[in-house]
Each structure stands twice: as C-alpha cells, then as structure tokens.
Amino acid sequence: MIDRRPRPWEIAYNGFSWTQRCAVTPLQNAAIRDGRLTRPTICTVCLDGRSERPQARDYRFLHLEDYREPLKVYGCCKRCHAAVHARFRDPDRWHDLMMRHSRAGEWFTLLSLDPASQWQPYDVTYPSGLPWKPSAPDMNFDFLIAPTDPVEQEARKG
Questions:
Q1: b or e along 37-50 (b: 16 or more beta carbons within 10 Å of the residue's beta carbon)?
Q2: Whole-angstrom Cα distance, residue 28 to residue 70?
Q3: Is 81:61 a contact under the CB 8 Å cutoff?
C-alpha cells in the first residue's frame, strides 16, 4: 500500500474523523426518504436559491458542524461548502466569502479559524453550539435587510 497525504476532506473536522463524517450520509438519505429531513434548496451562506438541477452545480450540500446531530444540516452550495472546509488552508478565500455574505449571528460567521479546531471536539470549540434553523422548502429570507452603511455596501460588492 502506498502511503499518501490525506486529501483535504479526509482531515478531521470539529474532532470528527473522516469515517465518522461519512457515517452520517446514510442516516441523512434515509431521513430525506421518510420525510424527517427536507433537502435544502437555498444556500444558507450566499442565499443562492438555484436548485432546479440538484445533481449539477446547483446541488445543496447537507453541511454539518456537529456530526452527532446528522439532521441539523446547513444547506450549502458547492462554492460555499468548499470554502467552509478550506478556511484553514485558504483563509483569504474565506475572508472574501465573509466580505460578500456575512450577516451578524449566522452560523458561518461564528466558525473558528483556528486550525487546531479541526481536531478538537466540537463542544470544546463551540461550547454554546452554533445557531441552527430547520431547513424548509419555503424558507423565506425577506427579513434580511440590505446594509445601509455605504462602507459595508461597498465591501459586499467585492
């Protein structure tokens, strides 16, 4: 067997091994089939709602921060999901995403940027947990108000 470096997605995340992370997928798929979980149609980071082709670029990942709760998912488009997991090795990419989409108090704005948190247990990094809202097909984001601060508006334009 050839020894190789782990691929980026095989590295521990919030203290959960690659095997533990993969083990939740069948549970999520079963929950979708029996109606306990609705596949997200909107990315909770960028709020992109294109999901008419769920197997193409419009696919929404069922992102987890706490793999002990496999049904507490955050819908993420491919671009945002990749950035969430790459934030330790590519902090500039994460910073750019935050400049475009940051909204106070949202789960992704509270994520640790400390690379050590990949191996620390979730409860150590996030003792109070992260905010979570159930995913629903009719999620309405009308409560989001465009920033009125000109500096913030310019920053979001990227």
A1: bbbbbbbbbbebbe
A2: 6
A3: yes
- pLDDT tens, residue by residue, 101-153: 999 999 999 999 999 988 899 999 999 999 987 654 444 333 333 444 455 44
Tokens of 110: 């509270």
CA atoms within a 13 Å half-sphere pointing along the CA-CB vector of 9? 6
Instruction: Count CA within 13 A, CB hemisphere, residue 107.
Output: 22
Q: How far apart are CA 68 and CA 150, in angstroms?
A: 41
Yes or no: say if 139 and 42 are a contact pair by the CB < 8 Å rule.
Answer: yes
Cross-strand bridge partners of residue 152: none
**Is the Cα torsion angle 17, 86, 29, 68 positive or negative in sign?**
positive
Residues in the chain, overall count: 158
Residue 125: left if φ>0, alpha if ψ -120 to 50, beta else—which one? alpha
d(CA 54, CA 39): 10
pLDDT classification of 4: cutoffs 50, 70, 90: low
Identify the three-state secondary structure at position 107: helix
Query: Would you say 12 and 118 are in contact if contact means Cβ atoms under 8 Å apart?
Result: yes
Contact between residue 67 and residue 21 where contact means Cβ atoms under 8 Å apart: yes
